[in-house]
Each structure stands twice: as C-alpha cells, then as structure tokens.
Amino acid sequence: MGSYSVVGKSIPNMDSLVKVTGGAVYTGDLKMPGLLIGKILRSPHAHARILNINTAKASKLPGVRRIITGKDTLGIKYGMWRVRPEFLDEEGLATEKVRYLGDAVAAVAAIDEDTALEALELIRVEYEPLPAVFTFEEAMKEGAPLVHEGFKSNVNVIRKIDIGDVEKGFKKCDYVREDTFHTQSVQHCPMETHVCVASYDPLGKLTLWDSTQSPYFVQVNLAATLGLRENDVRVIKGYVGGGFGNKVEFFSNEFCASLLAMKTGRPVRIEYTRREEFTVTRRRVPEIIKMKTGVKKDGTLVARESTILLDGGAYTGQVPTTTMLSGILGLFPYRIPNYRYLGQRVYTNNKPSGAMRGHGALQPNFASEVQLDLIAEELGIDPLDLRLKNAMQAGDGVPGIAPEITSCGLTECIKKLKESTHWRKKRKELPEGRGIGISCYAFTSGGIFNWFNTTLPFSEALVKLNNDGTVNLYTRAADIGQGVNTILIQMVAEDLGIRFEDVRIIAGDTETSTADLGAWSSRLTIHMGNAVRKAALDAKRQVFEIVGEKLGLRLHEELGARDGQIYIKERPDRAISFAEAVAAAQRAKDGMPIMGRGAYTPKGKGLVSSAWSFGAQAAEVEVNKETGVVRVLHLTTAHDCGTAINPRLVDGQLEGSAHMGLGQALSEDLMFQEGRVLNPSFRDYKLFTAPDMPEVKSIVVETYEPEGPFGAKEAGEGLTIPTGGAVANAMLHATGAAFKRLPITPEETFRALEKKAKKRRP
Amino acid sequence: MGSYSVVGKSIPNMDSLVKVTGGAVYTGDLKMPGLLIGKILRSPHAHARILNINTAKASKLPGVRRIITGKDTLGIKYGMWRVRPEFLDEEGLATEKVRYLGDAVAAVAAIDEDTALEALELIRVEYEPLPAVFTFEEAMKEGAPLVHEGFKSNVNVIRKIDIGDVEKGFKKCDYVREDTFHTQSVQHCPMETHVCVASYDPLGKLTLWDSTQSPYFVQVNLAATLGLRENDVRVIKGYVGGGFGNKVEFFSNEFCASLLAMKTGRPVRIEYTRREEFTVTRRRVPEIIKMKTGVKKDGTLVARESTILLDGGAYTGQVPTTTMLSGILGLFPYRIPNYRYLGQRVYTNNKPSGAMRGHGALQPNFASEVQLDLIAEELGIDPLDLRLKNAMQAGDGVPGIAPEITSCGLTECIKKLKESTHWRKKRKELPEGRGIGISCYAFTSGGIFNWFNTTLPFSEALVKLNNDGTVNLYTRAADIGQGVNTILIQMVAEDLGIRFEDVRIIAGDTETSTADLGAWSSRLTIHMGNAVRKAALDAKRQVFEIVGEKLGLRLHEELGARDGQIYIKERPDRAISFAEAVAAAQRAKDGMPIMGRGAYTPKGKGLVSSAWSFGAQAAEVEVNKETGVVRVLHLTTAHDCGTAINPRLVDGQLEGSAHMGLGQALSEDLMFQEGRVLNPSFRDYKLFTAPDMPEVKSIVVETYEPEGPFGAKEAGEGLTIPTGGAVANAMLHATGAAFKRLPITPEETFRALEKKAKKRRP
Hints:
Two copies of one chain form a homodimer. By secondary structure, chain A is of the alpha+beta class. Chain A is 29% helix and 26% strand.
C-alpha cells in the first residue's frame, strides 16, 4: 500500500454536476426523426390461456404504425441462467399463456402516447382463465396447477449446502433455537423508470439506447430472441437514474421496442409508467426462512440449519442466484462449522422476483441477526460480544464456497461501532421505549459463477495514451449513478501517474468496448478495476520500454510515474513528462498511439465471489407504545470496503443504503391480492423521504484486499443488508418484543407490544 | 488481381436507405436539454479596424445567455498549414481588424434563433474603415494596403517548379503559343450548410457534433484556439449533407459554438444560413493563368511555362496547397520534359478561398486543355491524337514530384472514349453549331505532404473480430456521402472472407478511433483503405495461427478465407467457419476478442500523392448562335480509378461530378463587388438542376495500382476537372471561337461569336 496521489481521494462523482444542472441526456430525453411511442398491453389475468387476439380495430386507428403480438415473435424464450436452458422461460410477448397479471400480450407503436394508449384499448384479447397459485401453500400443494408446463412441480430451483455435520453439531450444543422469519416484496423505485429507444437500420443492425445495468445482458438477450447475432445488436447505456438490481435483466420494453423498430423501420421508445415499474418489473424476493441455530453456553456458534422458500413469481430470471446467495449468506459473516441449507424457489402467478441491492443477503441476514439477539438474550451475553466471538477473520475459508477470505475487517468494524455508539452505556442506560441494536453482514465483491454463459472475459478494458498527456479509457462498465466511472479513472490516473482530469472515459456502449457483465453483485470495482489496471499497466510498460532507452537506463534501475512525470526511481531528478514519454513511444511506433489491453476473470476464488466485504451497523430507536410508530434516531455503520478508492463515494453509498435499508425495515411493502399489486404508486407504497431520515454516520474501516485493485472491494450493496436486523434488535432492546417479519409496521409493533403486555398480565 | 467476393461489387451505399427514408440524424437534428442557438455578427466592412464593441444593450435582451467578442478569446490564430506558423492567420473572432466583408466580430448564444438575431442587431461596433484591395492589381501594387501587417506584400505564398530547361525547350519547339485564362469563384453548395453543436462538460471536456470532412482538423484547431489539449476535445461527425472541400477547414461557427458552450455551460448550436454559406465559407480559388506551351510539328509537347495568380482572399487557409497543386497539375497528365511554374497566392479583402473538389487542378487543367486544342488546330492534328501522343504512361516519373507513376490508364481511357463517342465521325460530320471536344485529366490519390504537422499516422484503423462471425471496424474516416464507409467494409469483408453485412463500422468520431486526416485529396480509399486492410490482416493472422494448430497444418500449407470459411488452400474441404475460428482464437486468449491494428502513412511516394488517377472526357454541345445558349448533349467520361472497389459508387461520383463540372463550365459564378458577394442565394447563383443535365455516360477503365488497396485509387474528385475544357473545346469545334474564361456564359458566347463574325467580314 504505497501512498497514492489520486486513489483514496474524495473526488466528486464526475457525473454529479452535469446531472444537477440539467445537462445530462437520459434515454428518455433522446429525440430522433420519426420517433414512435410504444406501449404494451398487459394481461388482466394472473394465469390464462390466450385464445385469440384481434388487433383489426386497433390497427385501423389513425396514427398507429404497427401492432405486434406473440405471433410476430420467434417464440424464443430468454432468461439470465443461460447455462441452464430450463431456466429460460420468459417471453418478450406471451405466445400461449399469460402467467401473471401484467404479462405482456401485445405492443403498439404509434405517433404519440395518446394514440398508442387508445390503440391498446381497441385490442381484443380472448382468454381462457386458468386456476392460479399465489402462495407457497397453493403452489406447492400436491396437484397444484403448474405455472409452467413440463415441470414436475412449481418448485423449479432447489439449492442445497452441506458443510460439516449439522446433526452432530446440534447435539454438541448447549442451546438450540428455531425461528421462522418472513421478508416482504420490495420495489426498487429508481427515479427513472425502465426506458429504451430502439432503432433498426436497413442493413440489419439494431441499436438500443437503454437505461440498463448491463448493456451486455440486454445485447445478448435481444440477439437471442430476435434471431440476430450478438454483435448485430448495439446497446448504449446513457445516464441511468438508478437501477438497484431492477435493470440487470431483460425486459419486455426492450424486446418490444426493438421488434417494433424492426417492423416499422422507425425508432421506437417505450418508457414504463410508474405503475408499470411497480407491477411488471422485478421485486426483491419475498422469503420464508426457517432458521435453527445451536450454540455453546459461551455463545460459540456450532451449527445452523436454514430452510428457505423463495417466491420467484411467474418467471425464473435471476432467482436461482438469489436461492444460492440466500443459502450462502445465511452463514456469513460468522464462523459456523456445521451448516445445512435447503432453498426452494417456487413458481407462483405473482409478478416475477429478481435481484435487488444486497441480493439474496438481506433476507437471511435479517433472520440470522434477529435470532442471534434472541440467543444472546437467552444466554445473557451482550449481543455485540456474541458477534465479536463468532466473527469471521481473514484467512478463514468456507468449504466449497470461499476457499479463503483474503481480507476481513469485521472485528475492527464491531469494535469501532462499539466505541462510536457508546454501546455499553446505551445498552444499560437508555430510557424506557428506547433501544440500540447491532447487526453484522458480509457481501460478495464480484460474482463469479458464469450462469450467463459468457464467452468473453468478465471485464475487459482498453487504455489509449495520447501524446498531449491525456488518456482515453474504454470500458463497458455501467455507471448507474454509483460512480464507477469516477473510480476507474482514479485507478488509471494513479497507475499512470497523471491527474484525474487527464483521463477521459468512454463507457457503457457495447460497440466502443469489448467485455463486461454489468453493474451487479458489487463486481465493477473489483472486476473492471482489475481489467482497467491491467490495461493501464500494459500501456505503461510500452512507454517505459521507450523511456528506458531514452533515459539510458541501467539494468537495475526502475522507472516510476507520478505527478505527470516518468522518472528513475533511484534518481527522481532524471525524469521526462508523461506527454513527452508517450510522444516518444508513439514515434517509435510510426505514430501509432499506445494502447493497452487488460482483462479480468476471477480464478481460484471459489464458487461465489472474488472477495468479501464485511461490516456492522447499529441502530438506535424510539418506540411510541401508544401508536406503534418507531423512530430511528441514529444509524451508525462501520464498513470494511478494503481500500476506499474514493471515500466520498463510499459515504454516498452509505447514505443511500441507509435510506433503502430503513424503508425495507419499517415501511416498504409491495402488497398483492391474488396477483394484483395493491399499492403501485408512491402514494401507497411508502418510501422513506428526506425528513424521515435519521442522522446517519459512517465509519470506513480500510483493509487491504489482495484480489482487489489497490486493495479495494465492495462498498455499495452490503450496506443495505444489516438495517432490518439492527432496527429489529434495537426494538427488542427497547420493548422486549421480537420482530421476525419485515417490514416492522406500526400495526405490527402495536400488536407485538399488546401481546407482550398480555403475557405479562397473568 | 484475384477474383474477389465483395470487392468490385456494386453494393448500394450503406447510408442511402436511411437517408432517403428520413431516418438519418444530421447534426442540425440533434436536440439536447438546454440547447442554445448561436448566431455570429459579421463585419459590414471589407477592411477595418475594430475600435470598440458595445454589447451592453444586447446582453440585457431577455433570453440572451452570453455574448462573446475577440476580447473573450485567447487571440490564438489558426490555419491549416501548421507546419508554417506564418500561415496561421485566422481568428475565430476578430480581435483587432476585420479583413473581409463577413469576418466574425461577435457571437451570441440565446434561447432561440429570433432572440439571437435580435441581439445581433443590438450590438454596436465602432469601426475605422481601412483602404481595401479586391483585385490582383490593387493587391500587388507597390505600396498597396496590407491585408495582414508584418508581411512585405500581399503575396504571401510563392511556389515554383522547375523541371528540365524551359528556355532550351522552347528554342527546340516548332510552335509556341501563350494564352491567358481566367477561372471564377465557385461555391460548393452542399445541401446541408455548415452546422455544429458544442457541449462542454464541467470536467473540462468539449464535445462537438459537427458537419465536417475532418473531425481531426477541427479537433486540433479547436484545442489550439481554446487552450485545450487535443484529446480534451471530441469531435463527432454525423451524417454529412455534402462537403466538396468546403468542410475540410475550421470555421468560426465551430469556434464560437464551442467557446459559447464553455462560457454558458450549455450546449450551443450554430448553423449557417444559406446566405452565410455563400458569403463566409470558402470558395474555389479564382485564378489567372498565363500558359505558354511549345510543341514539335508532330504535336510532341516539349516545354511549358505556367504563371498563376491565385486570389486567396483574406486568410491563407489551405491555399498554399492549391498554389502547389495548380503548378503540379498544369503539367499532368502529359509528358512535358521542360516545365516551369510560378504560382503566387495573393491576399485580398475578398472572402477567403479554399479547397474544392478537384482541388487546384480544375483551373490549370482548363487552361492546358483549351490551349492544347488551339495548338492542335494550328498544327492540323486531331486533338484526341495530340493527347494520345503525349499521354503519361505507367512507369513515367516527374522529377521532384512523383518518383514513379505506378499505374496509368490514360491511353486506354482516350481510346475507349474515341470508340464510344464515334469521335472521328463526329469531328467530321456534326452539323453547323454542334461540336465535340475532349479533355484529359489526372488527379492525386491521397495527399502526402504533412502541412498540418500531424504526429499521428495519416490513417489508422482497428478491426475487432467477434465470435458470432461479425466484425467491428473502427475508423476515423469521414463519410460525407461519398460512400467511404461502404467501401472500407467491402475491403474488410474481402480480406476476412466474410459478407458485407457481417461488418459493422464505427466511424468519424475522434474518440472511438485513433487517426485519420479527413476526407480530402481523394485520400480515404487509398490511405484509410490501406490502414483498414492492415488491421484486418493483422486480426486474420492472429486467427490463422490458432486455426493452423486446430487443423493440424503442415508447414508448407497455407490458409485461405472465403465465404465465411477458413480453409487449407490446397485442401479446401478442410475448413472451419469464420465464427468458429474466431471463437477458438478468442478462447486461446482467455476470452479476449481478437483485435487487429493497422496504419498507413505514405512513404517513398514523393511530395504529392500516393498514386495518380487519370481519365478523359468528351462533351458534345449545341450552340444557339442567336442567344449564345449552349446545350450539352452528351458527356462521356472514361476514368482510370485502378480497381473499382464499388462500381456503383464510382458511377455515383461520376454523375455528381458531371453536374458540378457542367455548372462550373457554364453557369456557376460567385460574383463580388468591392468584397460584397452579389449573388448569395440559389435564385441568383445558378446551379445546374436535374432538367439541365445531359445524358452522362461513364466508362470505368480499371488498372491495378500497386500502392492502393486491392489496386484501387481515386474516383471522386478527378472527375470534376475536365468538364470546363471538354465543353470549351466542343464549343471551339462547334463555333471556331476560343473560350478562355469560366464560366462560359451565354453573354460570353454571344460576344465571342459576334467577334468572330466581324473578323470574317472584311
């Protein structure tokens, strides 16, 4: 860990100014000649066979340019788990059946939105309604109606983990308890809904401007479903107004806009309304978690069994990953030698679930963290001490999952939190109705398993050095507001010894870059960061070779690059400017600019992640026993993100995560009735707003992650995970009542307190 | 010359369909949030000192966002001949003096066009008018007012050529004649006027969407004048609605839009009106050519002396090149062993001149070709035979200019023309008032001399192979309608043995490409073509290495690529598909896509051009002796463009050239009075329209140019050159009168006929 010039500095997110001054052109802002507006007709049934679609009347409406239905498609199913063809079960437009209320049935392209909407009303669809399944009970019942034919049951994904010997483990325990936890459907709620503009040129090339977290996934899925080759499709990500996991997958707006553009020869935009955003995009997977944990008297964790049901909804999407992650992250961030997991993803006729920030981790973490406090209470151990005792350490490994945890600052995080929150004092002295709780977490830093079946490196970058001292960085990394562009530039500038403003980034376009899987699984810092560094170092090596000659370097002398100078390390006075050095290298190549390439695909890092981030959070709450309303007074998080490439951006992630975590803990709940979303608006779906937010404090614990660029790892998703547990545990402290269901609404709280009071009264 | 699969095929210009169906987004179509409209205040004086500019009132006009004058600039002068700093004499906004009527004095950015125009009217400029010079006589007179201070005279460029011994040559001649010729100012008249949109981001990066023939020249000049580094400026060329040489240079709209964007932080568009296009952009250089030529009795050319004055107007721009080319091309396409040239570019207070299709060649060619017919008449030799006798041949060289003409189909062109036009018969038998004339020409195929002082290769390209069988071609080549994108794709497809539609091109953007000088001097086919081929072959080599292993190639066996297959040449049954081969090569590189790079900078090809194209044209005319109106009945051109990469595009170039050539021969004339353009509109400036056009016939004579990709060379500019001469010679044939001034208007014709009639009457 040298001392850095650019890395580690709190450079403002490079996109901030242009965004706040209104200059950023988002996908929905794009105008082009002849642009048509597309709208999608949605199924009013949760489960039905399509008997007939009559578009005759709608087609005749003046201003309608084209209507497409499943019959206009190739009927090719898509999905995210391309490595398992049976998981490719979704269609851009339904061909035979609709499987949830909102399934895409037809799409219209018209000269304006009003015409498109009017046309939708004129389309007549004849359905044969089918019996539907909405709950685990209904879906898993013997002889239940099948959401997808051809499967034996609606349980289409089963994941198991078996570490150590759980039976023996439990036998050795002094105390074993089992609890059942419920987590809710959560909507991602980005400011910008799903939106894309498709354009098809007469030579057979499709271009999609898209608000997406993965230009590559969209490119591949578009190509597959439209019968094109991958590179006949270009996906260009513009500024993205938030994603949070909901823009990782492939959506019917992308499919329909593209197909309509191909059919009409004109550009087509489809932008989801807020209602569509709530009803037909993904949601966080609701889970029922049965967790059984056994400990020694002193609090040492010995064995755990976790059994989870996941409501995946009507299509598989990314939930096989969730199913896996919910198993793995039920174990983290503690040393539990014996662990067994059974996860079952269940088809229902609800809206499909998918990834969301803290993917698959938040749910089991809530269960585990709440249960730990109940155990601590039972054993009379301070919950913080219980965690310290069992915390994972660098050098630990999880058989079959993580060969080695190469960095882990969890213990330090807990200790810092303890100091910062005056933990002991508050645990003892907080008045009636107030409480403080802790929760710890871990998260992946760069997902590994190649379920998408890519033939490309996970990340690749190009770096071009210009003889005016500037550098171009070409990358497919998707900046979706998290600031990855900013930190990638920091890395390149650091490696080349130049300033932040010397680097221009060209990013997020499948045609000006080579490879990247997208912004998910907190992978970009580590995966693309490594690729970018390799590319920068490759370019630097080419320059150093020439500079070496120029400076008449002796064999043992080494060059360094810093502050725009390339110098002999042992004789820093002997230096030439970076621009001059590049110019010399370029001349030596007949004028051809110096280019470096670098790629990264994780190797030898096990099944799950390149690295693991850790952290601990404390919440302090005040519970109004009359109303059940909980106010969070403080939220303090200590996060181990390895080296913080940009502390300001880490802080930004923390602030956003706190907001999201609190909403999920206390207010957010996408509610369904027979497949129908009951609260598809910001009036009825309750997000925390600015005045609702408590003071949020962040403590960055820096470790050095050997697999990460400059020692960096994840700093964005992990932070959303602990809040449910921290709040519930604080409420346990404040009220003595256990909360095992998210969100913890005032009603829930009120009832729990009432129940508790009844118990007390004999 | 093997047999090709894609090269040589008449594939339609890839942009045609999107253009004719209205889908092409031109620069002027771009919309972005907060877009401001810029307008430029122009000098009403041809020569004046700026005493004061008062923008106070204009600044207060609601909707005005910013006004800039010379005081807001760095006062850095720019130009095209960067290798000679004294030729950098132009300013984006005048700081002290205005030098022609139309010089840019101030610029406004406002919320809309009306507001910007109103603001211009409110700007008060105090001028001190200075004596001005408009004609050669005025400008070259002893003690004439200097357009630019610091020079000894207004003659700021002098070019000389001296080959053989002209004095001795003339002494050996049997016949010597001297004539003086005049050529006019010609306006390029693209459908789309000059237009750009500038955007400046808060991190100091400037982006300019521009209708330009050279993104690179604009990038460099913008950086130089704005105090930025080259690569802090990105220039993106969109579809271009014609250039013809007028969009090669750097213009005040590009400068002012950029500076206004920097000052306002908002995007700014400046689009020239048609009037501005006529009055403040470039024009073809008007020349006065004194040509003295001596021949043997049998017509053998022995010596020539050419003395040319060029009205360069107020700024130097590219006219040093014109001055050179007008010297060189007064020699071509004939063997003239003794040649002397003196070219003087003169500063005047007229609008600046610049490059135009057939740059510097059209003017001396007119002189030479008309004079040849006068010589032929005198010697009693058929003009076609005179040309055949003196025609350059492959293997010839011109000392100091062209070490070796490596391909030349001129003789075949003349012979083909003779047959096709029934030359002999028509020369004898055409009725009174009808005539047929011939004219020959040569042109450069790729300018060489590095007057712009680039540090980059002249052209560079990247080729990326994808494992789905597609290929991406990255190039800075500027397709301005001529179809270079189409033929570059043909070359890549040919080299890789794939189909046209397998290649996607990413072009014309300084940030997604490395190097190219632009679309001028008919250089792209040969310069970028060579770069593209090298890149394709570099990529192919990488694939062949792996395929060789895969197919277990023996040492002596060679691979071929054709029809999407890579095969052993001697055993074509042993093949694998291109996609498979690329996939294998990619796997061998850990998934990294295969990329090839290639660059081309001419070497050992002399001072002027990588290669030379040749051709001959015949015009048949009918002269109305009552009105002086000339009707061109047929125009037949035989053109040697080496290998025609795409015969349909060559034809297209010919059709357009015929249109342009005829306008310049007969109707186009940008007229000036004391520096004021008298006819700045399509009402008064007479272009040939579709009904005016005669039948145009094209004969492609293919040679093989060793320096050209697949043997190709120029096919676009050369074709505009001969028409003035061919028409004048046909009129000489029809009427017996010599025409030495362009355009040959009905008035001119009428007077010449009258004069001739008077002479006949004793």
